[in-house]
TrEMBL record:
Assigned keywords, A-Z: Membrane, Transmembrane, Transmembrane helix
PANTHER family: UPF0658 GOLGI APPARATUS MEMBRANE PROTEIN C1952.10C-RELATED (PTHR34391)
Stated name of the protein: Uncharacterized protein
Keyword Disulfide bond tagged: no
Taxonomic lineage: Eukaryota, Fungi, Fungi incertae sedis, Zoopagomycota, Kickxellomycotina
Transmembrane segments: 21-41, 74-93, 105-127, 147-168, 194-214, 226-247, 254-274, 294-313
GO cellular component: Golgi apparatus
Length: 371
């Protein structure tokens, strides 16, 4: 029985009904969106495969813009929903497991961003359709699926907001008490958690933007395509992993490099915004069907980068005040207390002596309660 409880705790989900409801909503949303988008992808692929002059008009070329309708253009949008849902589930699970109220709020806001992305897709297909996206107006089933996607995101956003408030009330006072009564360490830890959350969001938006740009706009013959795929995407991942490491071990020189590079990156995103929206000839517009999506991702990424730069500076100023040691000390004592509790629950000849050890860590148990 004890072994079963230990396996359950490996998922690190607190016993609170609010925490479990939060994860349940995330799981239900993931299931619903993946089912909807998988069907849409399959439907799109089948029509391309079996129909050239179907009710959607696939295979036809828009004479005014000279742009052919491509299967990949539509499938990439739907695949982004699936990837976003998996990322959201990771955010929610990790936030609840670590009782991280900052990441819980971030997960809620991310879900609202997914709703905004679904709204952009619906607008592009049905309200102000572009040359090729206008074909979706002829398919009522696809319209219903798009509306269903927005309804799912809307309902889950409301649920996340309500549950986030309850979790904030429940976890808020526990979040920083591991550091004791030192207010300076508490403030430093808050910015530490904010930066960690921002870096996770940066990873998603950097990669999502680059993949969309490379697959929807750039061409094989365009050198920028290979720079995007071979340099920008892996380089962004390596850079952000380096940022995580610099924050964890408090490497000041590395963090300075991170701050400088992040501080320079807004120039690139502003350049892309200008290039996509100013002086583009309509007849040869490569952003005709993807402009709204890319503008959305570039704008969000630009805002995240600016906030990340500010949070990085705040964390850099807190290096060396004892936060790293306090977190390491907390984790060590927590691991020892868990080991003691596991041996106690398991019984056996060592159960008695371990009770003494547990009372030696009564101070730790009082400062954070094991779930």
């Amino acid at each position: 029985m004890a072994g079963r409880r230990l396996r359950l705790k490996c998922f690190s989900i607190p016993k609170s009904i609010w925490a479990r409801l939060f994860i349940a909503v995330a799981l239900l949303e993931v299931f619903a969106i993946i089912c909807i988008e998988s069907y849409v992808i399959k439907r799109t692929a089948n029509i391309y495969k079996y129909g050239t002059e179907s009710q959607w008009g696939f295979g036809m070329q828009n004479e005014s813009s000279k742009i052919s309708i491509t299967q990949q253009s539509f499938i990439v949008y739907d695949a982004m929903f699936i990837v976003a849902q998996l990322f959201l589930l990771m955010l929610c699970w990790e936030a609840v497991a670590h009782k991280n109220t900052i990441q819980i709020i971030a997960a809620t806001l991310f879900n609202v961003m997914c709703l905004a992305y679904a709204l952009i897709q619906y607008t592009t297909f049905y309200i102000r359709p572009s040359a090729s996206a206008g074909i979706f107006q002829k398919d009522n089933d696809m319209r219903v699926l798009s509306i269903t996607t927005m309804v799912v995101y809307s309902l889950c956003s409301v649920a996340f907001a309500l549950l986030s408030w309850e979790l904030y009330q429940m976890f808020g006072w526990k979040t920083y008490k591991k550091l004791g009564a030192n207010l300076k360490l508490r403030r430093a830890y808050k910015w530490h958690q904010i930066l960690l959350t921002l870096l996770k969001l940066d990873v998603f938006f950097f990669i999502a933007y680059s993949v969309q740009l490379a697959t929807l706009v750039l061409r094989v013959s365009d050198p920028e395509t290979w720079v995007q795929i071979g340099v920008v995407i892996p380089g962004s991942v390596v850079f952000l992993v380096l940022s995580f490491w610099a924050l964890k071990v408090e490497k000041k020189r590395v963090m300075i490099v991170v701050i400088v590079c992040l501080g320079l990156s807004p120039a690139y995103f502003i350049y892309k915004l200008v290039r996509m929206n100013v002086g583009v000839a309509k007849a040869t517009d490569p952003y005709l069907d993807s402009r709204k999506y890319l503008n959305f991702f570039v704008s969000i990424t630009l805002g995240l980068v600016l906030v990340t730069v500010y949070a990085s500076i705040r964390c850099y100023r807190n290096f060396g005040i004892g936060l790293k040691e306090a977190i390491a000390d907390y984790e060590a004592r927590k691991a020892q207390l868990k080991a003691s509790k596991a041996l106690e629950d398991g019984g056996g000849p060592d159960a008695g002596p371990m009770s003494t050890v547990r009372y030696e860590y009564a101070d730790v148990h009082e400062r954070f309660e094991l779930d």
